């Protein structure tokens, strides 16, 4: 009888642990995802203008605000 009681208590503990761990991993707030992180312009001529567009997606559950951009 004790084995059944301990087994049931352990099973309930494992289920509770797995549920709380799953909730802790959910994204809260904005989450920025870039399709590409780098762009190599290769060789360019002097005074040549290069234009490239990075696509930014918000995969979070809150609005994403980009307040500052530092070109490299």
How is this structure best described in words?
The chain has 72 residues and is of the alpha+beta class. It has one helix and two strands; from the N terminus they run H-E-E. The radius of gyration is 25 Å and the shape is rod-shaped.
Quick structural summary:
With 72 residues, the chain is an alpha+beta fold.
Termini Cα gap: 68 Å
Number of domains: 1
Helical percentage: 25-40%
Extract low-pLDDT stretches.
none
Per DSSP E runs of 2 or more residues, the count of β-strands stands at 2
Characteristics:
single chain, about 70 residues, alpha+beta, two-stranded antiparallel sheet, 2 strands, about 10% strand, rod-shaped
Indicate the topology.
Elements lengths: L1 H23 L7 E3 L21 E3 L14
Antiparallel strand pairs: 1-2
